Amino acid sequence: MQKNKYFFNLDDLSQGISRKLAEGIKTSIFPGEQAMVSIVQIDPNAKGKIHHHPQEQWSVLISGSAIRIQDNEEIPVKKGDFWCTPGETSHGIIGGTDGAIIFDFFAPPREEYKKPGIGFAAN
Fold first, then answer.
1. In this predicted model, what pLDDT tens digit does every residue of 19-40 receive, in sequence order?
2. Which of 45, 39, 43, 50 is nearest to 85 (CA)?
């Protein structure tokens, strides 16, 4: 049975665009017309590089824990926490002891994330 192109499930991210962001950090990306979703899987203690991009980013930690680095501040986050990262704000992530899964929303979509690749592809 063919799935509708606008419906997805967190237990099957195969319809997304795969991207390895860093060692131990990968994402599945689902671009739309005006916004984009990225489901980020972070291994325990994996570190994402500090970067920035023009898009606004909202994030929800849906499992595990992490340290969110935003504007040089380290903020512990746990399941259920969510936050906004305004465009051009420097940010990164460090996975907690059990890793983490984060649901990221970007508006507008990040053009560089509309194809598979490696890295954050940001400044």
1. 999 999 999 999 999 999 999 9
2. 50
Q: What gap in Å lies between CA 117 and CA 28, rounded to an integer?
A: 11
Average pLDDT rounded to a whole number, residues 80-106: 98
Vertex 48 angle, CA 99 and 83, to 5°: 75
CA–chain centroid gap for 119, Å, is 12
Closest CA to 67 of 99, 89, 37, 40: 99
The model's pTM: 0.91
Distance CA 1, CA 47 (A): 39
Using an 8 Å Cβ cutoff, are 74 and 67 in contact? yes
CA–CA separation, 42 and 29 (whole Å): 15
CA distance 65 to 100: 5
